[in-house]
């Protein structure tokens, strides 16, 4: 395309976006991410760093959580946080409707994954998980010399339960099934009926670790359901982990937890680290649970920002996986190395290689303002032939 044609095309696209007209070939309406028809797209050479690579909550923490953490440090920073941890457990038990002895607290949910791996290793267990998925459990298991079998997701990036079941049927002895639901980096969920049937019909030596780090985001999808009700029914082969890092924005505070039936919780808790929570993280988590208004604002911000992103991907005909999280896995029409480098040169950090296929990237959802700027950058990349 010649330079004058590019300019005309860009002006038309800018006008379409800024006026809210339907994108050609679709029935979608895009948000007004460009202020005027003659908006000047420039490289972000000197712009602030945009961190869209670790699935953090760019919306931030609850102001009440910030205040609580500051006050706790000033008043109790020299004391062990035992009383505060007890209070957090009580708040959390009420929040999830479980007895306190079925909760295990961790320095982030990754500590809980490690405790489950240590328990499984003591039982001579084989790990089976989707590919791709969050790699922390696999790394810990392999470091202990455990066998880890990875089962590819299907062509739509959904966890392939039937293929996993077929693989597990060939394994003698104990099995740890590692399921991140919603899955990271795909953003897909496991159908609630299919997952429940699988667990209900599995033998006791098959333990299910359900990593629900993105649970709160997925609640909007009626096809999603937590595995927590199975624990409440007394299933001793189910462990659910969650975190305050995502929807509550406490990634830097490192607060996570696991839930299990009483006997299982006792075994896992024995392998977790003692004195593993800080006074700042604990009090921030308590305040976050109480701040219902902030929770809804955080959900709304993610939804709005994700809409900006997906509408832009639609406009550029870049395929993506429908996500139930605060990130989106999408095509980039380029090799990931060069794409990532171009983004880095424009002060945007995006996800690392996470799929077998090149040409895909997982981008974290920032604030609505950040995603508008990211959308502008993608459009400029299209002009330059980079996506």
UniProtKB/TrEMBL annotation:
Report whether Metal-binding shows up as a keyword of the record.
Answer: no
Presence of keyword Signal: yes
Stored Gene3D superfamilies: Aspartate Aminotransferase, domain 1, Type I PLP-dependent aspartate aminotransferase-like (Major domain)
In Swiss-Prot or TrEMBL terms, this protein is called: Histidinol-phosphate transaminase
Q: What is its EC number?
A: 2.6.1.9
Which CDD domains would you find in this protein's record?
A: AAT_like
Pfam families with a match to the protein in the record? Aminotran_1_2
